[in-house]
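[step 3/7] inverse_fold.run input=structure_tokens len=365
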């Protein structure tokens, strides 16, 4: 039957207008390529379909059947009848060791004349624990692929180039690992199209030698880490202009809070700003001379409105470069106050006429 299907170039898909087909499988224990061929035969349209994505989030490599998934010749036989196909996205996560260096042989099977003519490239990525391997197409922006955790330097030996725009390094389960400038530089240079970097429980021992050149990287988000050296990070990533961070993660009342003086931060989001002592916060803002957009989350619900007004007025007077200010509170505000008048006419939108209890209140300036 499959031979007849391959020879029948006049067949018509059940979905005559299908341009893109995305197939995701969460987990499998066994696999037959013939079954996939039959499915595609009934779905893909040889004249219309131009994009096909095949994703398997996790498969256990306990039998030879699953090795068909990373056999370039099988994929070539499967895809070659569909002449309209211009894009093929592949993402396969395999749990269970292949034989030594077998991944190199497998990836080489995707370098035939057919794949080269289509300009479809593929790579693989080994990561901890060691028995995990991901085979994927380049560039394929599957967000899970780039939610990574580092527990030793060996991972950098086989880390491939990829073109994701967002990278999350989540060290929640590997908090003892510390990045140095070399390892940080190595991993970031594997992401030439990186635009946003998110760090969770990120620990480092950074010494500045040269800034890391990631030309498109503009956003840095730091979460769940105390005493991170923000100044060093901004010096390493000098083109960063958007920063999200908890104020409590960088503030130490026993140490001066110095920030890299040549930073280019234009948009700053600060959560967990303590209302009972705003002076360190205001001193911190002074170190961002290019600041245009400011988001503040104040967590102390007992701060009186008079104190809030004083803070807002001080910010608007001290930082005239700010063109947008968003304040986030965890309590109600006094609606009898004319906020627009009190803030020198800078209020563009604010909540009124309704009292919200127990939810966030926002003011935009």
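[step 3/7] decode complete -> sequence:
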């Amino acid at each position: 039957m499959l031979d007849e299907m391959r020879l029948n170039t006049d067949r018509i898909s059940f979905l005559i207008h299908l341009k893109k087909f995305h197939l995701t499988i969460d987990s499998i224990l066994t696999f037959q390529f013939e079954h996939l061929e039959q499915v595609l035969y009934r779905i893909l349209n040889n004249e219309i379909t131009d994009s096909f994505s095949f994703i398997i989030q996790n498969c256990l490599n306990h039998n030879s059947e699953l090795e068909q998934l990373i056999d370039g010749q099988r994929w070539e036989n499967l895809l070659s009848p569909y002449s309209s196909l211009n894009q093929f996205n592949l993402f396969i996560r395999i749990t269970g060791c292949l034989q030594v260096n077998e991944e190199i042989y497998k990836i080489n099977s995707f370098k035939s004349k057919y794949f080269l003519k289509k300009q479809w490239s593929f790579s693989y990525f080994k990561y901890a624990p060691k028995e995990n391997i991901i085979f994927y197409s380049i560039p394929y922006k599957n967000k899970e692929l780039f939610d990574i955790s580092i527990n030793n330097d060996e991972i950098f030996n086989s880390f491939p180039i990829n073109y994701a725009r967002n990278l999350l390094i989540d060290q929640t389960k590997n908090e003892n690992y510390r990045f140095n400038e070399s390892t940080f530089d190595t991993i970031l240079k594997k992401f030439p199209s990186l635009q946003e970097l998110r760090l969770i429980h990120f620990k480092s021992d950074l010494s500045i030698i040269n800034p890391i050149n990631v030309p498109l990287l503009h956003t840095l988000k730091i979460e769940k880490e105390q005493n991170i050296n923000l100044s060093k990070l901004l010096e390493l990533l000098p083109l960063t202009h958007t920063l999200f961070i908890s104020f409590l993660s960088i503030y130490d009342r026993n140490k001066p809070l110095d920030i890299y003086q040549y930073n280019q931060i234009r948009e700053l989001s600060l959560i967990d700003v303590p209302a009972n002592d705003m002076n360190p916060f205001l001193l911190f803002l002074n170190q961002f001379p290019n600041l245009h957009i400011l988001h503040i989350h104040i967590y102390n619900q007992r701060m009186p409105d008079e104190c809030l007004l004083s803070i807002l007025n001080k910010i608007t007077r001290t930082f005239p470069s700010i063109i947008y200010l968003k304040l986030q509170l965890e309590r109600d505000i006094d609606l009898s106050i004319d906020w627009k008048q009190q803030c020198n006419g800078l209020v563009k939108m604010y909540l009124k006429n309704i009292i919200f209890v127990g939810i966030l209140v926002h003011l935009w300036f």
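[step 4/7] annotate
The chain is about 20% helix and 25% strand.
The two ends are 68 Å apart (CA to CA).
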